[in-house]
Hints:
Layout: H1 11-22, H2 27-40, H3 44-47, H4 52-55, E1 60-64, E2 71-75, H5 80-87, H6 107-120, H7 130-143
Antiparallel strand pairs: 1-2
Helix pairs in contact: 1-2, 2-7
Amino acid sequence: MHYNVEPLRTTQEIDDFLWVVSQARYGERNRMIVLVGINTGLRMSDILRLTVGQVRGRDRVMIMEQKTGKKRWLFLKNLKTELGRFTRYRATSEPLFCSDRGGALTVNGVYRVFQTASEYLERDDIGTHTLRKTFGYHYYQQTHCSYVNKWHIFF
């Protein structure tokens, strides 16, 4: 089995991926997952732990990364309007990204959505880590620096 995950290197690749994931049954949710991922560089497990109350109406959010235990600021100013629309009629205690069964979406659930999209795009290098790699790739291309400036948002 092939697990070589790559970043989405061009704006066309990003636009195509956003379009494909938004055509699925939970398109708005899937599109928002992609936007949060490529704008924050978070691991998928950390994205899926976010709640509506953490992000609604906020420019920044402090989280504790699950894998490393480190505290990290997420700067969401450029996503504030879309997150507001996405969370408008939802309870603050709800997971930001819900499954069709009502609880928080799982990493495996996102992986299945991404695999369906990658098949449509005829690619075999897309997975849940693609969003994190995309963030890092575009940050480096714009700054030629490996240190992530926490104020920078791309898409």
